[in-house]
């Protein structure tokens, strides 16, 4: 049974707390790079929270926007890869095959959402921090691009479970780490091909917009705009 | 080289490397020992165990994902490899009434407490001078023996033993255990301390509503929310419960979207979500609340009587608060009169509505006045104990902190004075558990100096921090994932919640659970001490406390005690509507007379120190306890994107006038100290305010935190809220000057990004 995974992020619910950011680090074995490298722009956050300031004191407003990979249907990162390391899998995800990647970083250049991150060195963890590593997720080495996978390991595990129990996947039975943790329930994940799913219903909302929709990337992440 | 020679050579060098490695690590023997695993876990298959988050006082339930793995551990003094269950991911416990499966960023990072490379792995005894970090490793037998020997003479004292137990505020059986332990020592004291302690709001709620506890806000049913300074979506009170409710308030109800106004001097993460953001002068928030009440009463939107006893606490309430006309209040607060009138009318029109107060407005010298004023306003609006308003979580007597104010509780300031002066009695021994006052108190309180004078200090901390480095004996606790846990949430739920969880994993190091160490010590002391703590261990104590709950309707139904205890552990606690002894409202002291308007007082003159100084709870580190977790160090602050350091927030316009640019090194000076940090000019801060996150600037807290950034608490004045004695941490004044160009500001985002902006609006 094919799925087309998508996400809805309700900006009217998002509080900018960044639980998603740390949840993603914990789930996906994302290495911290330390102050010096972070200052050089080498920190890796598969999901980040952008903030947009408006106005001047005291009439100031801020809008938060969490930005994971938008999992574009027409992804600019894919055709530029000389080794086909960036490709679109059968479920519509913009996948990255680490073993194929030779680190040209063309994909990072092409991504309008700056959602791809380069490993400038081999990750390391001071002992015993390596015990936190999730055995379901491979560690990326120096010279390789990495990005949000919609927690593909969780998709695989849920599919395997459903298959073992000889049933279809249920809407909402699993979600990526960011969605699961989100304290204000701003994020919803599910199958866009299932018209009954929560994510399908919400992505049809009249508050729904695509980030940089005009560039024709056809993202599978839909933002619901704030109502104020 | 022939193939055969090569093989022999490589085999030899591999063997050599192995021996070498084990020797370097100081492991006994020549090879790594493999312990016989006790775990029945199947490799690659995760199990989920309940837990309780201890990263902040809220007490959210955890769901710990445990998988099989291989860890270097110490067992009976022997290091080796053990195949064991390892916590791999923390999620919220979906059953727990406070967080319903959700977790915040600090909670998510909790794995790094357990796996932190700087954990104290075994008992230590100090050999060098205090603070030198020179310890020798000793056995638990010797460590508990030493503690017992030190305490035995104190237990025999008739009038004053001189024993003080300094802890973080505890909300469960650890509190009961410690008080029972101390009951054996005449005149001993339990000093609970944390920097952001909300004592002022508890006191005010006791006076106004008869509940000495933090409120639970039913935001999910609110239609209009005004928050005065409270970072309730980020760090304050029960942030996950409040965020869940906030999400529902915004988009969880068909056709209804709650409106939210934030009033504060520096935009918090919470304030950034407001529909309308207002700035009021520091310490004037009580005036604003009474200004709103004035409009409600004088425009006959509400009658003064409807506030009942909460209104009686405010002088002039019955007369309609004549001195709080919108114009008068506007002059004091800086909020325009028309805005005050509009806010009041909106609060009245959009019911249910609630006004929240917390954080810096209550950390002024007039904090209690402010809190009482806001309580009276809530009562006037009919929001107290109502759906969509503020409520008080019921909690079971005997399970947590009392519902009455605890008289005679010392603050670290008074403790320090007692240590330094020896009056009323000298402090002979200090036990420290989960509190770090040497980092989190202003220099004027002399905590650090006083610790030098205590003859004996023992610490149960996981880490060597500024307070623990003064200890003579280090008795490291298990991490919270390795411990028996219990926690009674103060707020965030409408049910009686008693969180209980068994250890999610076996201990990695040669640590021991502090409650068990206390029980063991009491047994060795014998006599009354052994009687006071009659249990074999903490597990048995928890079991005996929890079992009576079986007879009340709640989340666990069981046929026998054993079955009940098993199910409570599986669920991560017990919750229900009553335990028969649910706390009742306490009565207001008869002697309390109505409060007059009180002006805030600031430390330092406006002439020498033209700026208000606002230390704020950090999104990453709360009060500094999480600064040793690399995930949180590298998590960008959401408003500035700053990582791995401190920064000084200053108004954009003010910065231009002072020729301070983003990243410049600036010096902030109060009458009590000086610090340096990079500047971040921001549009979201008042022109006369300088703000800094609390949490960095540790002199001692492991490799990730030590020597990083600056500690704003180190320049605070010693001023206290006048009625409660709580530290008025937002009442210090400072001056600022540019030092130089490179402040080494580490930002995730390099500039203002606006390309998404048009997508965010309709």
* Coarse structural class of chain A: alpha+beta
Beta-strand content estimate of chain B: 15-25%
Q: Please, what is the CATH homologous superfamily of the domain at 199-391 in chain B?
A: Dimethylsulfoxide Reductase, domain 2
Rounded to an integer in angstroms, the radius of gyration calculated over CA atoms of chain A is 18 Å
Spatial ordering of strands, largest sheet of chain A: 8-1-10-9
Q: Structural class from helices and strands of chain B?
A: alpha/beta
Q: Give the termini distance of chain A in whole angstroms.
A: 40 Å
Helix content of chain B: 25-40%
The profile of the biggest β sheet of chain A is: 4 strands, mixed
User: Outline of chain B, from the CA principal axes?
Assistant: globular
Number of strands of chain A: 10
Keywords:
heterodimer, A: 228 residues, alpha+beta, Alpha-Beta Plaits, four-stranded mixed sheet, two-stranded antiparallel ribbon, 10 strands, 19% strand, globular, B: 762 residues, alpha/beta, Rossmann fold, Dimethylsulfoxide Reductase, domain 2, seven-stranded mixed sheet, six-stranded mixed β-barrel, 22 helices, 25 strands, disordered C terminus
Structure notes:
The complex is a heterodimer of chains A (228) and B (762). Helices cover 19% and strands 19% of the residues of chain A. The radius of gyration of chain A is 18 Å and the shape is globular. Chain A has 228 residues and is α+β, with helices and mostly antiparallel strands. Chain B is of the alpha/beta class and 762 residues long. In chain B, 59% of the residues are buried. The C terminus of chain B is likely disordered. The chains are: A alpha+beta (228), B alpha/beta (762). At the A-B interface, helix 1, helix 2, strand 2, strand 3 and helix 5 of A face strand 2, strand 3, helix 2, helix 7 and helix 20 of B.
Compact description:
Chain A is an alpha+beta fold. Chain A has six helices and ten strands, in the order E-H-H-E-E-E-E-H-E-E-H-H-E-H-E-E. The longest helix of chain A is centred in the C-terminal third of the chain and has 13 residues, at 152-164.
């Amino acid at each position: 049974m094919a799925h087309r995974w998508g996400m809805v992020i309700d900006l009217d619910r998002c509080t900018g707390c960044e639980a998603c950011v740390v949840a993603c680090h914990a789930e996906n074995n994302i290495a911290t790079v330390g102050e010096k490298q972070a200052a050089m722009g080498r920190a890796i956050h598969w999901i980040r929270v952008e903030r947009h300031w408006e106005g001047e004191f005291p009439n100031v407003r801020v809008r938060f926007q969490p930005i994971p990979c938008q999992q574009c249907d027409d992804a600019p990162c894919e055709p530029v890869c000389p080794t086909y390391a960036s490709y679109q899998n059968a479920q519509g995800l913009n996948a990255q095959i680490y073993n194929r990647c030779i680190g040209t970083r063309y994909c990072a250049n092409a991504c309008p959402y700056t959602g791809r991150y380069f490993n400038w060195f081999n990750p390391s963890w001071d002992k015993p921090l390596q015990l936190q590593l999730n055995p379901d997720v491979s560690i990326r080495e120096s010279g390789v691009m990495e990005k949000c996978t919609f927690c593909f390991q969780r998709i695989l595990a849920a599919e395997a479970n459903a298959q073992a129990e000889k049933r279809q996947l249920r809407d909402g039975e699993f979600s990526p780490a960011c969605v699961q943790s989100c304290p204000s329930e701003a994020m919803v994940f599910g199958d866009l091909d299932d018209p009954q799913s929560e994510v399908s219903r919400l992505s049809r909302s009249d508050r729904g917009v695509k980030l940089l929709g005009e560039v024709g990337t056809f993202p599978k992440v839909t933002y619901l705009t704030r109502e104020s | 080289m022939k193939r055969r020679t090569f093989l022999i050579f490589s085999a030899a060098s591999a063997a050599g490397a192995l021996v070498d490695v084990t020797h370097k690590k100081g492991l006994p023997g020549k090879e790594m020992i493999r312990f016989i695993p006790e775990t029945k876990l199947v490799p690659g298959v995760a199990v989920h165990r309940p837990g309780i988050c201890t990263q902040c006082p809220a007490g959210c339930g955890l769901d710990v994902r445990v998988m099989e793995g291989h860890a270097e551990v110490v067992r009976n003094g022997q290091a080796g490899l053990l195949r064991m269950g390892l916590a791999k991911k923390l999620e919220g416990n979906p059953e727990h009434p406070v967080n319903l499966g959700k977790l915040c960023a600090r909670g998510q990072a909790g794995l790094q407490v357990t796996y932190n490379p700087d954990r104290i792995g075994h008992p230590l005894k100090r050999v060098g001078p205090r603070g030198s970090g020179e310890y020798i490793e000793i056995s638990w037998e010797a460590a508990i023996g030493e503690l017992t020997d030190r305490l035995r003479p104190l237990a025999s004292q008739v009038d004053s033993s001189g024993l003080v137990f300094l802890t973080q505020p505890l909300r469960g059986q650890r509190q009961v255990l410690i008080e029972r332990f101390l009951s054996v020592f005449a005149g001993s004291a339990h000093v609970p301390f944390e920097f952001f302690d909300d004592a002022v709001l508890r006191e005010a709620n006791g006076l106004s509503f008869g509940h000495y506890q933090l409120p639970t806000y039913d935001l999910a049913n609110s239609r209009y929310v005004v928050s005065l300074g409270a970072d309730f979506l980020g760090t304050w009170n029960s942030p996950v419960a409040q965020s869940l409710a906030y999400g529902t308030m915004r988009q969880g109800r068909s056709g209804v979207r709650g409106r939210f106004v934030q009033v504060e001097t520096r935009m918090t993460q919470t304030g950034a979500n407001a529909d309308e953001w207002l700035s009021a002068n520091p310490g004037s928030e009580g005036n604003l609340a009474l200004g709103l009440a004035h409009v409600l009463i004088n425009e006959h939107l509400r009658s003064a009587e409807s506030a009942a006893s909460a209104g009686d606490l405010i002088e002039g309430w019955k007369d309609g608060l004549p001195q709080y006309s919108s114009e008068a209040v506007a002059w004091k607060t800086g909020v325009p009169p028309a805005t005050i009138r509009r806010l009041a009318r909106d609060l009245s029109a959009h019911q249910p509505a609630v006004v929240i107060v917390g954080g810096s407005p209550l950390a002024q010298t007039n904090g209690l006045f402010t809190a009482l004023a806001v309580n009276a306003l809530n009562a006037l609006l009919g929001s107290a104990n109502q759906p969509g308003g503020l409520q008080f979580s019921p909690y079971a007597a005997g399970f947590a902190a009392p519902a009455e104010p605890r008289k005679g509780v010392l603050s670290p300031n008074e403790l320090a004075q007692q240590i330094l002066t020896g009056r009323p009695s000298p402090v002979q021994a200090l036990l420290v558990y989960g509190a770090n006052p040497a980092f989190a108190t202003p220099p004027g309180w002399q905590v650090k100096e006083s610790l030098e004078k205590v003859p004996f200090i023992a610490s149960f901390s996981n880490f060597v921090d500024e307070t623990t480095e003064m200890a003579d004996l280090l008795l490291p606790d298990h991490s919270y994932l390795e411990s028996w846990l219990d926690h009674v949430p103060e707020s965030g739920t409408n049910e009686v919640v008693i969180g209980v969880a068994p250890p999610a994993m076996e201990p990695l190091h040669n640590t021991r659970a502090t409650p068990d160490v206390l029980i063991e010590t009491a047994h060795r002391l014998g006599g009354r001490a052994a009687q006071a703590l009659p249990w074999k261990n903490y597990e048995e104590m928890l079991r005996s406390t929890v079992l009576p709950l079986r007879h009340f309707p709640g989340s666990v139904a069981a046929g026998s005690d054993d079955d009940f205890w098993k199910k409570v552990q599986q669920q991560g606690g017990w919750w229900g509507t009553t335990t028969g002894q649910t706390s009742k409202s306490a009565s207001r002291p008869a002697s309390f007379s109505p409060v007059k308007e009180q002006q805030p007082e600031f430390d330092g003159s406006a002439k020498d120190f033209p700026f208000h100084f606002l230390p704020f709870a950090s999104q990453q580190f709360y009060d500094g306890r999480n600064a040793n977790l690399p995930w949180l160090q590298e998590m960008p602050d959401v408003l500035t994107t700053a990582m791995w350091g401190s920064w000084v927030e200053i108004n954009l316009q003010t910065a231009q006038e002072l020729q301070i640019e983003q990243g410049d090194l600036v010096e902030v000076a109060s009458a009590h100290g000086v610090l340096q940090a990079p500047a971040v000019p921001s549009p979201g801060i008042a022109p006369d305010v300088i703000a800094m996150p609390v949490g960095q600037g540790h002199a001692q807290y492991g490799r990730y935190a030590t020597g990083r950034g600056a500690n704003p608490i180190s320049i605070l004045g010693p001023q206290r809220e006048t009625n409660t004695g709580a530290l008025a941490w937002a009442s210090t004044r400072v001056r600022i000057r540019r030092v130089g160009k490179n402040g080494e500001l580490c930002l995730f985002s390099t500039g203002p990004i606006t390309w998404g902006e048009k997508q965010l609006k309709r």
